């Protein structure tokens, strides 16, 4: 199969006649079949410049390859190695001016839909209860998955306590990364809801609050303590 001849997959959207009646998500995401086909467009470049276009340097070819192989759990794990908020970033990150603009296919064709694939993998993980307490996912409970995420730091736990001010995307990411490094982190939020701009600045039809809360629950599962006002 000539990968360059596979058209970029269009994402399903809510019908305009219906969306004017609600505040639900407009973009509905990829189906499994669409995601796998889109992932197969990736050329798996020896020098993947798309990674340089990603602010957190996700191993884009690796997670895309896992989607092409229908190993969605591994794709989600690769994403979370560098990005603690993949379901959010897959929806609101400006990939078209970052990783996707670097895609080699973009020179003559349309770039791989990296953001949509990120969203698919993250949503798949949520839908299959990988981060839900007491539910097994690939043989591991939530607690076991959290332990495996920070196993590299538990052998050298740092007893310093760190306070992070603000629970917006920067604060959440900082708290999660520091916890993975072994620090004891508490995030302090002045408002009554965690999430900052994710909760208060982005409308529901663009970023559902349910998705934000799921991502926050994952960060809490790592051991981050969050205190609201």
TrEMBL record:
Q: Which GO terms describe its molecular function?
A: iron-sulfur cluster binding
Name the Pfam families for this protein: Fer4_20, NAD_binding_8
SUPFAM superfamilies named in the record: alpha-helical ferredoxin, Nucleotide-binding domain
PANTHER family assigned to the protein according to its UniProt record, in alphabetical order: GLUTAMATE SYNTHASE [NADPH] SMALL CHAIN, GLUTAMATE SYNTHASE [NADPH] SMALL CHAIN-RELATED
Which residue numbers delimit the Dihydroprymidine dehydrogenase domain?
A: 19-128
The UniProt entry, under InterPro entries, shows: DPD_II, FAD/NAD-bd_sf, Helical_ferredxn
This protein's name: Dihydroprymidine dehydrogenase domain-containing protein
- Organism expressing this protein natively: marine sediment metagenome
